[in-house]
Design goal:
Elements: E1 2-7, E2 12-19, E3 23-31, H1 33-37, H2 44-66, E4 75-81, H3 85-102, E5 105-110, H4 111-122, E6 130-135, E7 140-147, E8 150-156, H5 162-172, H6 179-187, H7 212-227, H8 234-260, E9 264-268, H9 275-288, E10 291-293, H10 305-316
Parallel strand pairs: 1-4, 4-5, 6-9, 9-10
Antiparallel strand pairs: 1-2, 2-3, 6-7, 7-8
């Protein structure tokens, strides 16, 4: 079984071919990060235009790397939600046209399900059910992976995601976009105990989290120092922030594991590449005897390999769509395949 995956939810145009769910045959990514760095973040209109320019060449290259043609495919998987709606529409409409012209199955993939599936490419021995911490620029969730296509949200953020907190704090500290990786790099040179930062809690929900107050605390501390003519130790603030976020997420995951009884834990999403979070989660799992699965750095950020992988499982489960498939920026809970 060969599945072509297409990803265009934000600022990466990507295509990949996966064989039999977990064998990666090709993966091509055209990143726009350097271009958006000029504006301090992703410009949706610009992202959509670049997807239009890149998607055909990226797809052709992925097929060439896999040494196959369109006719060799069993299906074409595409991210349809969540993400920037203009960017998503480029991928969805391209996939719809390609599937129709080639007579292949069109497979809708939820972006978060794709991030979780990245673990299967690196760790084919990982099998559901298990507990997964999903952390990215726009999402922070604790998810019970019941099977390859069925999921249950145990906890989520009530406001900012962890990655969004990193990005906005990085900006006020003077670091360029993308901020998360800059925070990680700066943390290696800082003192993580220098600044005492809050650990917000959500009343009535032990597994939900909130990062808006933490973000505001960092921004206010920096602005207050500037008003007094004081110099902020940016690497130490970055290290303090990273340590705080890692401890919050690790604690939530530990509680979720105790509540559900899972001893197999996974991480997914762009922020799962953060070294502080990886170390914190590894130490927690080691202390309890849990098994931790984390994708390699190449599969943590947005890519089409994860979409092709999850698309393979969707295809086997009979989850396909027709030409009425639409794109949705948000509002579609993970596991609910809204395809009309």
């Amino acid at each position: 079984m060969l599945i072509l995956g297409i990803e265009s939810s934000c600022d990466e145009t990507a295509a990949s071919v996966v064989e039999n769910c977990t064998i990666l045959k090709s993966s091509v990514i055209a990143s726009q990060a350097m271009e958006h760095q000029l504006y301090g973040g992703v410009v949706p209109e610009l992202a959509s235009r670049r997807h239009c320019e890149n998607i055909l060449a990226v797809t052709q290259q992925a097929l060439e790397q896999a040494n196959i043609t369109i006719q060799d495919l069993d299906g074409i998987a595409v991210t349809y939600t969540p993400g920037l709606v203009g960017a998503l529409l480029v991928g969805v409409n391209f996939a719809k046209g390609l599937a129709f012209a080639a007579g292949k199955s069109l497979i809708p993939v939820h972006h978060i399900m794709g991030h979780i599936a990245a673990n299967y490419l690196a760790h084919p021995e990982l099998k559901p059910p298990y507990l997964c911490l999903v952390v990215s620029g726009g999402h922070t969730m604790l998810i019970e992976v019941q099977n390859y296509t069925k999921f249950r949200i145990l906890g989520t953020t009530r406001d900012d995601a962890a990655g969004e907190c990193f990005d906005k704090c990085a900006r006020v500290l003077g670091y360029p976009y993308p901020g998360g990786v800059q925070i990680d790099r700066a943390s290696q040179k800082g003192d993580s105990t220098k600044y005492k930062l809050p650990r917000p809690k959500v009343a009535g929900s032990v597994l939900d989290c909130s990062f808006s107050g933490l973000k505001t605390a960092v921004i206010n501390t920096v602005h207050h120092a500037q008003q007094l003519g004081e110099v902020i130790d940016a690497p130490s603030m970055a290290a303090s922030l990273q340590r705080t976020v890692a401890e919050i997420l690790t604690e939530k995951t530990e509680i979720a594991a105790e509540m559900t009884g899972y001893t197999t834990i996974a991480m997914a999403g762009g922020v799962s590449a953060n070294s502080g979070l990886r170390d914190s989660m590894q130490e927690m799992c080691r202390s309890h005897g849990y098994t931790l699965y984390v994708p390699p750095l190449s599969l943590c950020g947005d890519n089409a390999a994860m979409i092709a992988c999850q698309g393979s499982y969707n295809y086997l489960a009979g989850i396909t769509a027709d030409e009425s498939l639409n794109a949705y920026a948000s509002g579609t809970p993970i596991g609910e395949m809204k395809i009309s």
